[in-house]
Amino acid sequence: MSADPNELPPSYARVSLAVITSGREANLLGNVHGGEIMKLADSTAGAVAQRHSGGPAVTAAMDEMAFLHPVHVGDIVHTFAQVNWTGRSSMEIGVRIEAQPWNDPSVTSLHVASAYFVFVAIDADGRSREIPQLTPETPDEVRRMREAEIRRAHRLAKKREIDSGRTRD
Ligand SMILES: CC(C)(COP(=O)(O)OP(=O)(O)OC[C@H]1O[C@@H](n2cnc3c(N)ncnc32)[C@H](O)[C@@H]1OP(=O)(O)O)[C@@H](O)C(=O)NCCC(=O)NCCS
Asked: Which residue, judged by its Cα, is nearest atom 20 of ligand 1?
């Protein structure tokens, strides 16, 4: 790890969580409710944001989440999350979610969803505060940071365009 506390690699704050789903999380069809998966992804990303920024951080935005396969009650749901990019106070956190039946290790873990979250580190007054910069160490981390910059530019452009339309009204 870098000796400079203002520079941290993605591995510093990386988090993975695993839970066994139960009937409490089921939707009316008997599968796990998509909102439960989103909450788990948000919680995992929140832990990463807190660890990277060394204090409180809030969810500012989440990009779309596509569900690729249903999650069944009793599946082990596994989340993997890490910081992809940092700005002054905001960070993009990527989360990958996989599921596997609790009782059958011969079934390969399925990629059920992925999402990108923007978290903003805040101070005691709720204002954004500076965070350590990300120092990618592997080619994959460099690629994720580059792709996150593209998503950041699109998010801000969309926000600017929508905000400017509202001030014209
Ligand atoms: C997130 C929040 C602190 C941002 O406040 P703000 O006044 O826009 O703060 P700033 O102008 O200082 O911007 C802070 C950073 O957030 C980024 N940001 C703010 N809104 C964003 C959005 N919708 N998408 C992407 N980035 C965003 C800014 O680009 C800036 O990034 P940088 O510092 O890395 O350059 C504020 O909107 C908030 O408290 N929201 C509620 C969060 C919350 O409660 N979440 C839980 C849901 S219940």
From this structure: 60
- Which pLDDT tens digit goes with each residue over 97-106? 999 999 999 9
CA angle 148, 44, 146 (to 5 degrees): 10
Is 12 within the bounds of a domain? yes
Rounded to the nearest integer, the mean pLDDT of the chain is 95
Residue nearest to atom 16 of ligand 1 (CA): 90
Structure tokens at 46: 């929140």
Who lines ligand 1 at CB under 6 A? 58-61, 87-90, 118, 120, 122, 126, 128, 155, 159
Give residue 159's domain range.
7-168
CATH code for the domain of 137: 3.10.129.10
Pairing of strands 110-121, 15-20: unpaired
